[in-house]
Amino acid sequence: MGRVGLLGAGVIGGGWAARFLLSGIDVLLHDPDPDAERNVGEMLANARLSWSRLTMAPLPEPGSLTVVKEVEDAVSEVDFVQESAPEQEQLKRELLARASSAAAPETVIASSTSGLLPSRLQIDMAHPERLIVGHPFNPVYLLPLVEVCPGDRTAPGAIERAITVYRAVGMAPLRLQREIDGFIADRLLEALWREALWLVADDVATVSEVDDALRLGPGLRWSFMGSFMSYRLGGGELGMRHFLDQFGPTLKWPWTKLTDVPELTGELVEKIVAQSDVQAAGRSVRQLERHRDDCLVAVLQALRGQDTGAGAVVREWERQLVERAGRPSSAPEQDGLLVHSAVVLPEWVDYNGHAHESRLVQVFGDATDALLAAVGIDAEYLRAGGSYYTVETHLSLLREALAGQRLRVTTQVLGSDDKRLHVFHSLYRDDDDALLATAEQMLVHVDAGGGRAAPAPADLLARVANLTARHSAMPAPDGVGKRIALPR
């Protein structure tokens, strides 16, 4: 995909811009708001920070952002269009009609609408067959869900093309069986929102207490199990049938007011606004967004480790990133040694005020991955079941690493044979070249399918031998072969 055209640069449009740009895709953006470029720039800064902590997989070079004055300029020479204008049907229909007339006939046009029917949005389009709804969730650059809903005149090819585009930027497309007002997620959210408004209107709870009831309870469970699987476990060993038999009758009890809506009187609006202001505690919208993103990254990382929910989407996205990066034709070097760079992130710092040693092990592991990429172990090789596994590490901590400091790791191959790879990493602080830590490692080539050590293939061994010959001719670094022992 070369370029995408975006119509609208609000909360959703700016989020789309960040996700596409950070995926290495050039963006043409149209929005009549004179602050559109500034808004997208601020969202992009937040997104870039989040992505740097979300994955250690190789990210592509960011795409370029070009703000254009006219709708036609944003859509006429792009491969995909995403519309994110305000949620007004007539406005969207006019915008989509202009886009449909100017875009190439094969260009798919997606609307970010959160509830309008695509069949109605198609009415004025010159090529209605290429319109789909691609409804994302805020922040678009972190939450993977995008609901894909066709209209009654949408061509099957347009649906598949949109799904391919969304997957390529790390999203999880959910295709609806048929169109319906509000789609899936917003219909569920609307039911929860109505109940929340009643609880505040009736002085049962404050907005903060309603949020606590969700984030400290079912919200945690929903993040990886959803609704139906959570209820299934509520039925114990007898499962979903027992749960429905036990709690089905409560659906007739007057617990909810889902068919009734509280009137948003001036008094209720002021109550909600005042309580929400207290909850925000003086934090700006950008500060709240940063806090939200930090928490989402932490949750996504935790779920990634379990390969479930949105974490499974992150893992698949990382696999794609590694595959796209391929094998570098050359690795960065310094005085003949391989080099890996990193930054000490704030969350690496422990109660002592400096980076925890486990984070330094992570940096050394990333340096080892860079070494393996340099000798030709790419995504295809890993899929075939071969790799080097670290079986022993000797870590020496010499100085502290503080938040925000840039780090540099040099890697020297000390020796190798048909199965083993002996390496030595030196970790430096970039600004003054202070040596902070070293790690001596032994790696063993494995056949992951057989679960055992195995000789590396001849072509890989040739590259490893070449690197070993170059590095073994260099002086051995201080600390090689050290052991832990008290003097006798």
List keywords for this structure.
single chain, 488 residues, alpha/beta, Rossmann fold, N-(1-d-carboxylethyl)-l-norvaline Dehydrogenase, domain 2, Thiol Ester Dehydrase, Chain A, eight-stranded mixed sheet, seven-stranded antiparallel sheet, 17 helices, 15 strands
Q: What topology, given as strand order, has the largest sheet? A: 3-2-1-4-5-6-7-8
Gap from first CA to last CA: 66 Å
Structural shape? globular
Can you count the helices?
Answer: 17
Number of strands: 15
Briefly note the CATH topology name of the largest domain: Rossmann fold
Mean pLDDT: 91
Structural class: alpha/beta
Question: What's the CATH superfamily of the largest domain, by name?
Answer: NAD(P)-binding Rossmann-like Domain
Number of domains: 3
CATH architecture of the largest domain: 3-Layer(aba) Sandwich
